[in-house]
């Protein structure tokens, strides 16, 4: 068991489901799967969804480069302005949208995020992509799929399928942001109805 | 800042930096082929202009449209206001129509405050210039322009203007731009010096968080940015200086004066520029003059303000930020 502090200061008990080496292994596997499906990753562009999706996208790009010997463009796609729940919360600070110089037209865009849950973030990301360019195809890679989809969306590459209850919360920690790599499963602080 | 944006003085440092950072992201939308975000879809914003303005109204309208809001433009000329309708009646009409936000420009100082606090209307009110009082989005776009030029677009994120020396020159007495800028720049940590003929310095200026000088030439060499103001003849009911020529000689910015500024220093002007009087064509057209850039930045700033006031169920400014990680 692992205790960490939540945003509001209360201690939440959380159990690690994946730890540092597991995450590295999982990302290596996803990278190989991308190369296999894209037949070499020639036209692949990785777009991470802030915050942690961007770090994962960068790590995947490094692994893809190791495998293929080619540099894979990485960007980030902030979906805040495209969320369907904007009016249900205070507006959040925007994160960075960074599209690689060559654009997305005709490329295979792999969206990268840490957790796939309701699917609404990915829906927003697809809308955002629409305004930015016209990829040849869009695929989705996630570190954890925790289920409870509210939209007909599924991931092409999944690090770990993690069946959860709505009472549980999944928290991904990455060295770049949190000082260590881990996927934690704990009890949610919010009522299921509020959860997104 | 609470629900409304009435005065630059209402903004805390964190509010102001959040608006500038948000505007930086909004500016990137302008570089895209499709310059539109769905953020305010289904929301109606009314531009309520009791005083003529082209630049500010178009800037707000562009910002509203880029955020997909429905826009109603209301100009007092030729409207029921010229038939004698009061601000209260206009406000109640807008309320009945279900307007989600009001952008107001009025020749009377305090009109936006009255609109926001009287209970006539429930929507957020954004001040687009009231009399000689405030023009907060202008101050924000000026600060945004300075931060971009002096620190850089990316390096500037999260930064204020701490320690920068800004000089504001000209008709301070009639200028809401000067008032708003003094308030905001002080909040952002900059040192502001006002330079003006003694007749154009407002009474009570000693209570403002800035220095006052009557000698432009001594201030120029230590300025990071020099903001020229327009001489507002339409607000002048007396002679405030002997001749245009004398004003121009003492307070106008020409090539020689610009050469005395530090190399990195920029020249700003809120527009419209009166060339030959406050600023020579040589200076206005030089690479150091940011007047055109300020116009483009105005749209980004207004998008940021509209998003932060209207985008959510409560204003983002002065409320704690939420953690973005758990929501998928």
Automatic annotation (TrEMBL), chain A:
GO BP annotations, alphabetical order: regulation of DNA-templated transcription
GO molecular function terms attached to this record: uracil phosphoribosyltransferase activity
Protein family (similarity comment): Belongs to the purine/pyrimidine phosphoribosyltransferase family. PyrR subfamily.
Entry-linked CDD domains: PRTases_typeI
PANTHER family, sorted: BIFUNCTIONAL PROTEIN PYRR
Gene3D superfamilies tied to this protein: 3.40.50.2020
Pfam families: Pribosyltran
Catalysis: reaction(s): UMP + diphosphate = 5-phospho-alpha-D-ribose 1-diphosphate + uracil
Keywords: Glycosyltransferase, Transcription, Transcription regulation, Transferase
Origin: domain of life: Bacteria
Entry EC no(s): 2.4.2.9
Organism classification: Bacteria, Bacillati, Actinomycetota, Actinomycetes, Kitasatosporales
The protein's name in its UniProt record: Bifunctional protein PyrR
Domain Phosphoribosyltransferase, first and last residues per copy: 18-160
UniProt motif (PRPP-binding) ranges: 109-121
Purpose: Regulates the transcription of the pyrimidine nucleotide (pyr) operon in response to exogenous pyrimidines. Also displays a weak uracil phosphoribosyltransferase activity which is not physiologically significant.
From TrEMBL, chain B:
UniProt keyword terms in alphabetical order: Pyrimidine biosynthesis, Transferase
Residues binding L-aspartate, per UniProt: 83, 176, 230
InterPro entries reported in the protein's UniProt record: Asp/Orn_carbamoyltranf_P-bd, Asp/Orn_carbamoylTrfase, Asp/Orn_carbamoylTrfase_sf, Asp_carbamoyltransf, Asp_carbamoyltransf_Asp/Orn-bd
Database matches in PROSITE patterns: CARBAMOYLTRANSFERASE
Gene Ontology, cellular component aspect: cytosol
One Pfam family of this chain: OTCace
Gene Ontology MF annotations: amino acid binding; aspartate carbamoyltransferase activity
EC number: 2.1.3.2
Domain called Aspartate/ornithine carbamoyltransferase Asp/Orn-binding: residue spans: 163-309
Chemical reaction(s) catalysed: carbamoyl phosphate + L-aspartate = N-carbamoyl-L-aspartate + phosphate + H(+)
Record-annotated Aspartate/ornithine carbamoyltransferase carbamoyl-P binding domain positions: 3-147
Keyword Transferase: yes
Pathway: Pyrimidine metabolism; UMP biosynthesis via de novo pathway; (S)-dihydroorotate from bicarbonate: step 2/3
Top-level EC class: transferase
GO biological process assignments: 'de novo' pyrimidine nucleobase biosynthetic process; 'de novo' UMP biosynthetic process; amino acid metabolic process
Gene3D superfamilies in the record: Aspartate/ornithine carbamoyltransferase
Binding site for carbamoyl phosphate: 55-56, 105, 135, 138, 271-272
Family to which the UniProt record says this protein belongs: Belongs to the aspartate/ornithine carbamoyltransferase superfamily. ATCase family.
General function of this protein: Catalyzes the condensation of carbamoyl phosphate and aspartate to form carbamoyl aspartate and inorganic phosphate, the committed step in the de novo pyrimidine nucleotide biosynthesis pathway.
Self-association state and partner proteins as the record states: Heterododecamer (2C3:3R2) of six catalytic PyrB chains organized as two trimers (C3), and six regulatory PyrI chains organized as three dimers (R2).
Name of this chain's protein: Aspartate carbamoyltransferase
Organism, scientific name: Streptomyces natalensis ATCC 27448
